Every structure is written in structure tokens, then in C-alpha cells.
Amino acid sequence: MNTITKLVVLISLCLITGTSHAQDTLQKTKSQLKIESLQEYKEVITQEEKAFLKTEVETINQRLENKEITQVEAEVLKQEMAKKRALNIENRIAIIDSQIELITRNPGYYPSTQSPENEVIISIGKKKGLYIKSKNEPPKYDIRTSNQLLFAIGFNNTIIDGESLDDSPYQLGGSGFVELGWLWKTRLLKNSNFVRVNYGLSFQWNKLSIKDNQYFVANGDETTLETFHLNLKKSKFRTTSLVVPVHFEFGPSKLLGFNDRIRYQTHKQFKIGLGGFAGVNLATKQKLKYKENGNNQKDKFKSDYNTTNLVYGVSGYIGVGDFSIYAKYNLNDLFKDQAIAQNNVSLGLRWDFQ
């Protein structure tokens, strides 16, 4: 019994000693990791302040080129910026050195200001860790390209050779289109935002709601409208396309000037865009709803229905700010190699969310 007691005491002492040693090692590892991270961050500070200075000098040169300041004023501003950035480096590194000294004297102490801005440290096992720092860049003096979300919705129909819209086999109210895309807008002139070009990628959904109890039938290479054998509640035909829209946009804008940048603002400004689109047809679907033997039926057919693979056309918009009236016309035939050509035409509302 005495032997067992001694053995239990010995094991307990070993566990306590091992745990204490592990905690000391872990604490030491954390402290070392933090100190190494701060040492590395001193170099980051230097590079960051140099990047700020480079951008500020470019801004001063741009102002000089635009004749906003004289050569003498530009040199004075450059010297002031250089002095400011040098002092920033000196002060920020002094703060880091103070943090390193504090952690060295107190391994378990981590001041609230210890972490470099936007810093993430990940350690795995005994590895030193992974240091990640997001970029903190100064604003650009002038941004010529911006991006925006495109959303448009409205009415859709087709122009058929020899027929007017009043004689169209498609409902005017039930046929529509939706467009969703991502665009870039680039200013074409150096010192004016009057002319811009919009370009990007967008999805177009064109839907036709067929009248008079008809639906599309593909007979070989020919697609025709035929009468359904039952009373149709709904007969809809939809194409999905991926296109590249390009528009030249014209209109005034407001110039906003700041100390370190300029911006052209088109908010609440008149605009008009003229251009077109080109792309590919991704999918074609027809949906029929009807009642058979007292039961509601819904059929969905996915087929090409001899629709044109390549889609292209002209489009334009006119509006104010983000909102505009939007029109587009497909130059390609809806169906290829048909006796009577018909082309999609759309009119609706468009929003360009910047």
C-alpha cells in the first residue's frame, strides 16, 4: 500500500511539472511570435509610408500638370510631404519598439495597441506562424474606371415581317424581359467626363406569352406556332442569353475636388447611352399550363427550337442618375432559317447601381 501511494505521488508530480513546463513553453512561443511579428511590421511601416509618399507626389505632379499650382508650390508641397512621412516612420517604429520592450519584460502581457493594423497571425504546432496584413493604400488622385450593377426590366415582343404589333401572336402585357449584369464605366477624355464607355457582361431573359391557344412546335428545321389540342391557361416561351453590352454614354457630371484627389459625380445628372450587345444563346424553354381530365397540368420543354445561337443587336437608354428608360432591338432572327423573320424588341426601365 505504501508503494502504491508513493507511485501515485510520483505520477502526480510528473504531471504537474509537465503541465507547468508546457504552459511556460506555450507562453514563450506566443511572446516570441508576437515580437517577431512586430519586428516584421516595422519594415511594413516603412514600405507603407513610402507608398503613401509616392502617391502624394504623383498627386502633386498631377495638380502641377493641371496648372492648379506653380512649380515652386509643388516643390514646397513635396518637401512637406517627405518630412511628414519621415516623421511618421520614426514615430510609428518608436511605438512598435516600446511594445516589443514591454512584451520582452512581461511575456504574458499584451497591450491593446500591440497588434499592427489589419493584422492576422495563425500558428500551427511549433511553426512561427502566418502573418497576413491587408493593404492600406492611399486614395488615387483620379479614377477613370468604375464599376456598377445593371438591372433592367420591361416589356418584350417581336417585330415580324409584314405584321404590326397589333397583329402580334404574343401578348403585349404578358411578354417581358429581365437583364442583370456587371458593368465597367471608363472616362474617355483626360480632363472631362462628358464621354464615357460602358461595357461588361449581362444575362438577358426574353419571354413571350403566346396568344390564341397556340404554342411553338419544331418540325425539323422549321419552328411554327400551332394550336394546342386543349385549352391553354398559359403558353410561355423564354430564351436566356449571355451578352457583352457596350454603350457610349454622354452627359454632364459634377467635378468634386479634394486635397488629395478629384472625383467626377454623375448623381442626378442627365445621360444618354447609345450602343449594342453581342453574345450567345444559353437556353430555350417553353412552359404550358392547361387542365386535362379535371387535373391541372404543367409541362416544361427544354430544346433549342431552332433559335439562333448568336445574339446581337442595338440598344440605348436615356435618363438621370442611376435611372433611365431602356430600349433594345435584336438584329438576329429569333429563329434561324425561317420563311418569316421575327426579331426581339424590348422597352423598359434600367438602373445602374454604382
From TrEMBL:
Keywords assigned by UniProt, alphabetized: Signal
Signal peptide region: 1-22
The keyword Signal is annotated on this UniProt entry: yes
Protein name: PorT family protein
